[in-house]
């Protein structure tokens, strides 16, 4: 059974740091790119792509809103991807999800982890 489990969220003041983890199981983790998304609070907010890393960690991409502050990485021996978030801002607040496109066709999501940044 394909499973993604995020952890590491919490409450933080502006300027602080958090590291999120995404543990994968039930599939070949080293064969899948991993993407991070977030959903800001509020009705009707859609998930916003934040960062992505290819299956071997050679390619990393970031949205303009987090570039230079967030770093994505992975450990394929432990089947875990990470999102290191530095210099957090209030508008980074939201639920953070990791995502894979399983077998190139099925979107799979974790349950999400809450990040709250206060000013």
Features:
mainly beta; 119 residues; globular; seven-stranded mixed beta sheet
Overview of the structural elements:
With 119 residues, the chain is mainly β. The protein is 0% helix and 53% strand. The chain has no helices and eleven strands. The protein has strands spanning 3-7, 10-13, 18-25, 34-39, 48-53, 60-62, 70-75, 80-85, 94-102, 106-109, 113-118. Strands 2, 4, 5, 6, 9, 10 and 11 form a seven-stranded mixed sheet that branches. A four-stranded antiparallel sheet has the order 1-3-8-7, with no helix packed on it. The radius of gyration is 14 Å and the shape is globular. The termini are far apart.
Outline the fold blueprint.
Elements: E1 3-7, E2 10-13, E3 18-25, E4 34-39, E5 48-53, E6 60-62, E7 70-75, E8 80-85, E9 94-102, E10 106-109, E11 113-118
Parallel strand pairs: 2-11
Antiparallel strand pairs: 1-3, 3-8, 4-5, 4-9, 5-6, 7-8, 9-10, 9-11
């Amino acid at each position: 059974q394909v499973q993604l489990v995020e952890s590491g969220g919490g409450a933080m003041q502006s300027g602080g740091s958090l590291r999120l983890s995404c543990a994968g199981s039930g599939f070949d983790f080293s064969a899948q790119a991993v993407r991070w998304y977030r959903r800001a609070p509020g009705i009707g907010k859609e998930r916003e792509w934040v960062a992505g890393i290819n299956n071997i960690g050679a390619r990393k991409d970031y949205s303009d809103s987090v570039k230079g502050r967030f770093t994505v990485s992975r450990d394929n021996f432990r089947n875990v991807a990470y999102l290191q978030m530095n210099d957090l801002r209030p508008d980074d607040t939201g639920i953070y999800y990791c995502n894979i496109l399983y077998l190139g066709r099925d979107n799979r999501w974790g349950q999400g982890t809450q990040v709250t940044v206060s000013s």
